[in-house]
């Protein structure tokens, strides 16, 4: 009996750290009140602000795009200046599918997501090696290549004139008896459509970053050598998160093309990648909801300044960002992240 009793702690001891880790992970994934309030605010914005549906639709698309970049930058530590490559690829895929194959928005969205994910998988090998500067140049180069391809293949993409004549069919709800919802000029149907996609992506992304895989991404972001030394497969994780982020960015681009009925070279332009970085600078990186808060502030600021002084809006936005980063970031931006305090393991 004594020998058996002596051996019992040695068998149980390895399970103790695992149990503690599991409890920590469950606490990390626990829903906070402000998260529930944010999800409740999404449909309320559609109900209470019908006259601002077009602007809100733009904000939701930028927020979705920013979430995709936050996965690779804020969680995996992959810096990118060419994230617009996936955004633009998704936009052109959805527009071409609607024009040449079938106008169903949901099917087109799924096709655009799959195509963007495939592009992310193929190009992910380019970001596995090298320094941050190398990744900046490589990702920027990929976006530039796609920009020039879209410009040269004008028989397919419309070139500098853009892809015109994209007419979307009604949005049908699968497995229900509901009739299709036509896109209207006020943008209410488009905003509802974008909101549903944004909410679904948020749920999937939240589940991802609160899983053991998401925690391991943060480990390799903080110290890639240490993560590899404890047995984590760094390349496979980088490829996986890069592919997922590409799919989400493609969804954002597809939503833009579907809700506006137009796709142009602008979706591949450098300013798209730069703007989404600015959105994350404003909202914060590495806590998933920074893209949403940053998109709201950036688009509202853009809209207000453009209405006030359209010829100088770049100056005022630039000045705001300089002041925000150098002077007021800790005072004005960081409190938004206080809601997430205690959520990291």
Task: Provide an overview of this structure.
With 345 residues, the chain is an all-alpha fold. The protein has a single domain (29-338), classed as Orthogonal Bundle (ABC transporter involved in vitamin B12 uptake, BtuC). The chain is 72% helix and 0% strand. The chain is built from 15 helices and no strands. The chain has helices spanning 2-12, 15-28, 33-48, 53-75, 84-100, 105-123, 132-152, 154-157, 188-209, 212-222, 224-229, 234-260, 270-283, 290-308, 313-338. The longest helix is centred in the C-terminal third of the chain and has 27 residues, at 234-260. It is globular, with a radius of gyration of 22 Å. Mean pLDDT is 84; it is low at 4-12 and 331-345.
What features would you highlight for this structure?
disordered C terminus, 345 residues, 15 helices, mainly alpha
Secondary structure layout:
Blueprint: H1 2-12, H2 15-28, H3 33-48, H4 53-75, H5 84-100, H6 105-123, H7 132-152, H8 154-157, H9 188-209, H10 212-222, H11 224-229, H12 234-260, H13 270-283, H14 290-308, H15 313-338
Helix pairs in contact: 3-9, 4-9, 4-12, 4-13, 4-14, 5-6, 5-7, 5-12, 6-12, 9-12, 10-12, 13-14, 13-15, 14-15
Radius of gyration: 22 Å
**CATH class value:** Mainly Alpha
The first-to-last residue Cα distance is 40 Å
Amount of beta strand:
under 5%
How is the main sheet built? none
Share of helix among residues? over 70%
Summing up helix and strand content along with how strands pair, one would put the structural category as mainly alpha
Which residues sit in consecutive blocks of at least 5 with pLDDT less than 50?
4-12, 331-345
């Amino acid at each position: 009996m004594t020998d058996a009793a002596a051996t019992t702690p040695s068998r149980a001891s390895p399970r103790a750290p695992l149990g503690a880790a599991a409890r920590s992970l469950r606490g990390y994934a626990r829903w906070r009140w402000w998260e529930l309030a944010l999800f409740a605010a999404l449909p309320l914005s559609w109900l209470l602000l019908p006259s601002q549906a077009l602007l809100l639709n733009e904000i939701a698309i930028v927020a979705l795009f920013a979430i995709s970049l936050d996965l690779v930058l804020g969680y995996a530590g992959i810096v990118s200046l060419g994230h617009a490559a996936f955004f633009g690829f998704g936009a052109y895929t959805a527009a071409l599918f609607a024009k040449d194959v079938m106008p169903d928005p949901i099917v087109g969205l799924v096709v655009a997501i799959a195509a963007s994910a495939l592009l992310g998988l193929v190009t992910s090998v380019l970001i596995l090696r090298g320094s941050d500067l190398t990744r900046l140049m490589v990702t920027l180069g990929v976006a530039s290549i796609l920009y020039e391809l879209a410009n040269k293949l004008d028989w397919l993409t419309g070139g500098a004139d853009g892809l015109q004549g994209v007419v979307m069919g009604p949005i049908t709800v699968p497995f229900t008896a509901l009739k299709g919802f036509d896109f209207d000029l006020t943008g209410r149907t488009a905003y509802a459509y974008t909101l549903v996609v944004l909410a679904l992506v948020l749920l999937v992304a939240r589940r991802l970053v609160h899983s053991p895989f998401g925690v391991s991404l943060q480990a390799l972001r903080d110290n890639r050598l240490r993560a590899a030394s404890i047995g984590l497969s760094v390349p496979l994780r980088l490829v996986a998160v890069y592919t997922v982020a590409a799919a989400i960015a493609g969804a954002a681009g597809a939503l833009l093309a579907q809700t506006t009925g137009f796709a142009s070279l602008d979706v591949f332009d450098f300013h798209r990648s730069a703007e989404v970085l600015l959105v994350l600078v404003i909202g914060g990186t590495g806590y998933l909801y920074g893209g949403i808060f940053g998109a709201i502030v950036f688009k509202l600021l853009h809209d207000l300044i453009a209405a006030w002084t359209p010829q100088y809006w770049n100056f005022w936005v630039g000045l705001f960002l300089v002041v925000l980063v150098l002077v007021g970031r800790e005072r004005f931006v960081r409190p938004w992240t206080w809601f997430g305090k205690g959520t990291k393991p």
